[in-house]
Fold this protein.
Amino acid sequence: MKFHSQLPATLLRGYVQLSTSVVPGNQVALSNANLNPLLPDSPIAGYTGVDNPHYLGPTIVATRNKPVRILFRNLLPTGSGGNLFCRSTPR
């Protein structure tokens, strides 16, 4: 994702509404990005999104006097595959 036209794109953890029988959306196949560009992304079996994942951002739109429920599911792989992507450089 690019946050500004003068900055390079950056890799983010994305958020997306999951497809259901009630809200199927576009049923976008979901995957976890690999840091090594030579390896393909790892597909997430059993889940599709209503749209492409996006940066969550600071805004949740709600209506007054109407409850809002947000359920977050962690679909990151376990072990080192689920580590946050940070590249260390030797000092």
